[in-house]
# Entry
Amino acid sequence: MGSVGEVRQRIRAVHAFCSGLPGGLPVATDLAASLAGEPYAHSFREALLRAAVEGDPLERALEESLSRHDGAFREAILSLARGADLESSLEVLRRFAAAELERESRDISLRVGVRTTLSYAAMTLLVTASVIGSIPPESMAPLSLALSSVMMAVSALRWVRWRRGSP
Amino acid sequence: MEERISLMESLAAALELGYTPAAAIIELARANPELKRPAQTIATEGDFARGLSEAARVFGKDSPLAHILLSEAEPRELGRLLRHAAASARVIRQVEREREAMLQWHRRVCRLLSAVMSASAVIMGRAASLFFQAFVSPQTSVEFSLAVMCLGFSALVLSEVGDDPRWLAVSPASAMAAHLLMRVLGA
# Structure
């Protein structure tokens, strides 16, 4: 599952690469290495270095240095690198971004589903435990307060991360 | 963002006409006050690199402008590069809009989930309380405890989609509504 800003990072990397394409593959790779976030920028830098030091063609160097990333990202970059014309490069960018948004949406649905199920399960478990006498009903209040505080703290951190990730 | 893209297109057009990057920025600054400062740095101080980095700030931190203009290509080629960068920025702007719409949809669902979760927790708490009052002690109630716990769960669900924390108020409001409903129904 991707983190909050991961999808944007990936789209940003492909966008940077696509923006530099009219200047040729080295310009596109250089632009992506400067503008993309980590770990994507590192892969582009590595490809430039590999091409410069080992004399590999840049396309092959890209293929190797992007191998640690997932298929969709690699495919998008490599299809741009394999000489897509300007109009179709925008189409590649558009399709990649659409697929990324769909993936992000699916991830969010899954995470929300898991959280909701866990919430209901936890509440049902606690109520059942207190009804059958496994935990005294008086301990429900401190237990709820403790659980709620932990979840509030986790949520506050998430909100901060969202705020940092927003444009 | 739209203004930035239009500005990038104007810059591309100036470069395609044969202006050097420095001259293009100075020319554009006449009609665009936000470029006045970079143009001044280039024209009066003669510091193209600093002027360019100031101009790049106008175009946003993700803009490839500075990288493109600092390359050694001829102005028409730079113009072509910038025009393509502007076109891809338009694609990204559309993607950002779609993403915002997608997140907005998830946020609405999460608010609804938060409200339903809180109401059902209070109803479950009321049922448990009735049981305790009948068989354990007439003072025992777990409704409030469950409502408090649900507030934490609601925060967890709402923060999952980066919703405004103020929507957390939905949870106690819904819990209160469920509590009142139970009272009205005589439970």
Observations:
- Chain A has two domains: 6-104, 107-165.
- Chain A is about 80% helix and 0% strand.
- Chain A touches chain B through 64 residues (CB under 8 Å).
